[in-house]
């Protein structure tokens, strides 16, 4: 009987080496990008969608390069203080690399970067745990948009439904979600069935660096632990 691949031993030294090589590749890539591009931005991703972000990368690949990964590795690559920074003043970016952030290296003008990011967005279905942007309530009555085969599935999502002559009926009003509350798995699935998109994928600029300027963007940023140096 052939051995299961799941039971094959993994050599720890190899995985550590691969992880180290990956980190070194990021460090080297960022250091090279510092030479190839004129400005650097820290950004955050809201409601990340991989395919749409890939489109953004492709759109800007001739003028820019994105880095996502360990904040600590990116900080080391830029430098975390005046003493070890790779460009004058660039260590200031490192203090904003926390949480879900990334780096954008680009040769585009600041105004063009801001315009692109402000216009860039993709509406999509919200996932479990996302915050509902509105209250959605279904009123008692027929749900003619669903075929009778959907009745068991809708029942599993908590909807009070029944079949009446092959037509699904909602026997009482039902609140799918409340505005401001986190979506349950059932709520997220029901909203998808209803075609209601509550998530918007956006990219927000946090701060930017160029050889003669450093600037913080946006409102509501927690700067309490960021030094003014």
Mind explaining what this structure looks like?
This is Ribosome assembly factor mrt4. Belongs to the universal ribosomal protein uL10 family. Its main location: cytoplasm. The chain has 229 residues and is α+β, with helices and mostly antiparallel strands. 32% of the residues lie in helices and 24% in strands. The strands form 3 sheets. Strands 1, 2, 3, 4, 10 and 11 form a 6-stranded antiparallel β-sheet that branches. Helix 1 crosses helix 3. The longest helix is centred in the first third of the chain and has 25 residues, at 12-36. The protein is elongated.
Query: Structural class of the helices, strands and pairings?
Result: alpha+beta
Q: How many H/I helices? A: 7
Q: What's the average pLDDT?
A: 87
- Helix content, binned percent: 25-40%
Q: Which strand-content bin applies to the residues?
A: 15-25%
Task: Tell me the overall shape.
Answer: elongated
Q: What summary fits the major beta sheet?
A: 6 strands, antiparallel
Distance from first to last alpha carbon: 65 Å
**Topology as a string of helices (H) and strands (E):** HEHEHHEHEEEHEEEHEE
Total beta strand runs: 11
Radius of gyration: 24 Å
């Amino acid at each position: 009987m052939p051995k299961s691949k799941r039971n094959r031993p993994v050599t720890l030294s190899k995985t550590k080496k691969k992880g180290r090589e990956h980190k070194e590749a990021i460090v080297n890539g960022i250091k090279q990008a510092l030479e190839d591009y004129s400005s650097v931005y820290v950004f955050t991703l809201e409601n990340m969608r991989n395919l749409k972000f890939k489109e953004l990368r492709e759109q800007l690949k001739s003028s820019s390069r994105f880095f996502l990964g360990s904040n600590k590795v990116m900080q080391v690559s830029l430098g975390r203080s005046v003493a070890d920074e790779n460009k004058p003043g660039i260590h200031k970016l490192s203090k904003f690399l926390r949480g879900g952030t990334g780096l954008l290296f680009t040769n585009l003008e600041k105004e063009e970067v801001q315009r692109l990011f402000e216009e860039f967005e993709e509406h999509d279905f919200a996932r479990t745990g996302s915050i509902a942007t509105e209250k959605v309530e279904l009123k008692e009555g027929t749900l003619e948009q669903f075929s009778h085969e959907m009745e068991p599935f809708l029942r599993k999502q908590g909807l009070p439904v029944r079949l009446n002559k092959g037509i699904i009926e909602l026997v009482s009003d039902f609140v799918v979600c409340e505005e401001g509350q986190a979506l349950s798995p059932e709520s997220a699935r029901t909203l998808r069935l209803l075609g209601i998109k509550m998530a918007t994928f956006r990219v927000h600029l946090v701060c930017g660096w160029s050889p003669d300027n450093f600037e913080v963007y946006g409102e509501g940023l927690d700067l309490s632990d960021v030094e003014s140096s």
